[in-house]
Amino acid sequence: MFYEVSKNFPCPKCGNNHWCSFDKEQNIICCRRNTGSGIYRLDTTGTEYWLHFLHPSTTYTRNATKPLNPVVATTQLSASQLNEAYSCLLSNLDLGQFHKENLLKRGLTDSQISTNQYKSYSLLRRRQLALKLQHLFGEHICKDIPGMYKDSRGVFVIGGCPGLLIPVRDPSARIVALKIRCYSSTSSRYSYLSSKSHGGKSPGHPLHFPLAFDFNSKLIRITEGELKADIATVLSGTPTISIPGILSWRMAIPVLKSLKPETVRLAFDMDFKTNPDVARALIAAFDEIKSLGFNTEVETWI
Asked: Which of 19, 193, 221, 232 could form a disulfide with 265 if both were Cys (CB 3.0 to 4.6 A apart)?
């Protein structure tokens, strides 16, 4: 079994505290970033990783190099169950004026902001929210909701940093995860609502499809970032899929094969000019998507 790295145990190869993983004995490292060494592999989602053996005595076996999942404690709840629980959570929250003004400045309308169900998430009323979810769904469901866990007293609480809650939706518009744009400068700018650091469940790393997504469009954009995809879709009219990370672009391939657009537009962040991992991912994505017969374009954000 592999466990995701954390702030207390960052990846020994790339130094990051997320996305990479390690085995129980901490002998085998699954690094998601190319550090110039390691054994190259693809996991079950098509995302790249590099295996590193920290101790010479580690046995190199077939099992040690089989495709790994990015997170082992992924929730077993169905998309419908997650959607029901997260919709209930969001319905009990409000959108603060600060967040609303920021979304309006980005080009969204009041109606779009309301329909997308963006909400402000503070430290207040979390115990009451947890009690309400427990009453409505029962302990057997709550223990599997990413973001919920029992504290030291055995009482359900809801974790996550304060910030703006952004629904992550599947192709059927069901909310399968919540992304937080955090307030704190010490936190990651964006993080999933998850309880994996407390022994609970993670939502995994799902693709996101904005509510305004046109599945019949001949042009589809691929980018990283759920809020960015929402805004890009409504402002440009081009349906935009959000991948959970630049290196996970292969997750979008089955969707492209199913929808069969004429053109696929890759819109990665500008750091591909300075970050070799992003540049390599962009080139690989462009080449593979083009080889599948799609007209392939690269778009840069201004």
From this structure: 221
